[in-house]
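Email to the structure team, subject: Signal recognition particle 54 kDa protein model.

Hi all, the expression group asked for a predicted structure before they design truncation constructs. Nothing fancy, just the tokens so they can compare against earlier work. One-line instruction: predict Signal recognition particle 54 kDa protein, return tokens.
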Amino acid sequence: LGGRITRAIQQMSSAIVIDEKALNECLNEITRALLQSDVSFRLVKELQTNIKKIVNLDDLAAGHNKRRIIEQAIFSELCKMLDPGKPAFTPKKAKTSVVMFVGLQGAGKTTTCTKYAYYHQKKGYKPALVCADTFRAGAFDQLKQNATKAKIPFYGSYTESDPVKIAVEGVARFKKENCDLIIVDTSGRHKQEDSLFEEMRQLAEATKPDVVIFVMDSSIGQAAFDQAQAFKQSVAVGAVIITKMDGHAKGGGALSAVAATKSPVILIGTGEHMDEFEVFDVKPFVSRLLGKGDWSGFVDKLQEVVPKDQQSEYLEQLSKGNISLRIMYEQYQSMLNFGPLKQLYSSLPGMGAGMMPEGREKESEAKIKRYMTIMDSMTDEELDSPNPKVFDETRMMRIARGSGRIVREVKEMLEEYKKLAKSLSNMKGLKIPRNGDLMSS
Ligand code: GDP
Ligand code: MG
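Reply from the structure team: attached below.
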């Protein structure tokens, strides 16, 4: 998507006369690209209208950096669409919050309930899970298994068929046990059916949730808006979680879900395991949707913190895409050593959001140090290979043993490396033109 949008803008800015027609052609191409990324038709139209309001053709003709103006307009409009203007719900530790998950069958509710509970447990909450899904066979077993793995108390029944009764009992039990975050998992149906919505209404009325979280599979494409709206119309949805972003989905559905529910996205699911999720953050998400990192911020900061004569070399290394593990090692070292570089990396896609999340620097630092210890046990050949092949089990075991860590941690580090290499490959073509201004191409 990013490539296509960039090309469209490039084409326009190379036109001899930038007139209404050239801008329209550019916007039409962008429209097509966004539609292909599952951004809903009505939102794309809205975006197009807004961009035309922002982008003043007279300004464009006056020799301003047209590409930058249009790119920024697209970026900021997409960000606006993902921000419903109300803060995400945060449970309070001193009091009991009830959170109800809703969504179609297979959307990822049960999996995500556990992720949500696990995330808050790590933050010091006392979560509990209630299985109010009596529709799907094996639903309780699935929740029980997940909860046990995460060491989270759970409640459910094999025999009771009334979901409302189970939910009420479960919530009452955990309130008595002083849990501060009671999560009610509900059933879904394959389709949006009246019976499902009726059940959700009854459950909400009986358990009085502090927030209802709508869980949506990111791969449903253009159906996102209607689905989210259907749920919003029957229960007071207050937050959204988008799942399966590790798959082929392009993420445009998130914009639809926000627009239809007027609620913020709080998490995105990136895998089947309980630690495979990301706390949602608008700007990196839009960057990803556009297929690139948050350039503008990164480039500005690079100019601030890297000496001018080194900037070019620095960018070249980063933009090669297939970087060696040693470069990652050196980057980690800089992250730990230099204050300002921390900021630089926090704006670098792939490094930033995951490695140095705000307020969790200590944790991130420990992680970085662990990865560095692991890399200390690698051979030069392993570290310097420009594109390290997947390591086999024996190699990983040797590295784990050498560093006093376990194989899972070695794998985790290599995953982090792969993520970094992937996000850097999106930066290919980052150049410093002769006049010294950094820009992306
Ligand atoms: P529910 O019917 O809404 O409760 O959905 P489940 O939680 O049972 O999930 C349905 C399927 O999707 C399961 O196989 C999950 O492992 C899988 N799943 C859920 N979230 C994710 C995700 O973020 N990524 C991937 N790859 N799979 C997921
Ligand atoms: Mg389920």
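The chain has 21 helices and eight strands. The CA atoms of residues 222 and 274 lie 27 Å apart. Ping us if the truncation boundaries need rechecking.
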